[in-house]
Q: What sequence folds into this?
């Protein structure tokens, strides 16, 4: 069976999303999403008909933004996240989002023909928070191989 990598990360606004302070984030969002969509190894991302996920919330908290996507490999996601124009906007995240005191990212393997749901993403993030990285949900710092390579 072939597996793809799902990732979820969340952020809590520290500015009013309707304010001028948030405008620079929203101005960059379309470009960053387009970059993801055209990156090697990209499979899918959560989005509304407007093309982003800013109106989708996790943990029943309207102050949290969610980013949920699927990639062909951890290397493809790392290339996008850390070696593309995405990095420049991430360096500025402190302008818009609070520093979180608990894990805000989870990665996990799923069958290549499946897509993650928001409730599943919440569960994977809670798993990392409660148990640390395991083969069920992990981080970049402690990654696990796909299930077909675990044995």
A:
């Amino acid at each position: 069976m072939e597996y793809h990598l799902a990732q979820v990360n969340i952020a809590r606004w520290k500015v009013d999303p309707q304010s001028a302070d948030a405008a620079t984030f929203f101005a960059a969002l379309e470009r960053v999403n387009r970059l993801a969509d055209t990156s090697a190894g990209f499979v899918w991302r959560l989005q509304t008909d407007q093309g982003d996920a800013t109106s989708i919330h996790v943990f029943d908290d309207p102050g949290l933004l969610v980013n949920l996507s699927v990639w062909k490999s951890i290397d493809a996601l790392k290339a996008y996240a850390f070696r593309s124009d995405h990095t420049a906007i991430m360096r500025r995240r402190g302008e818009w989002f609070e520093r979180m005191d608990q894990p805000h990212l989870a990665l996990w393997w799923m069958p290549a023909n499946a897509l993650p749901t928001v409730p599943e993403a919440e569960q994977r993030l809670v798993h990392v928070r409660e148990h640390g990285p395991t083969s069920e949900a992990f981080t970049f710092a402690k990654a696990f191989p796909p299930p077909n390579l675990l044995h």
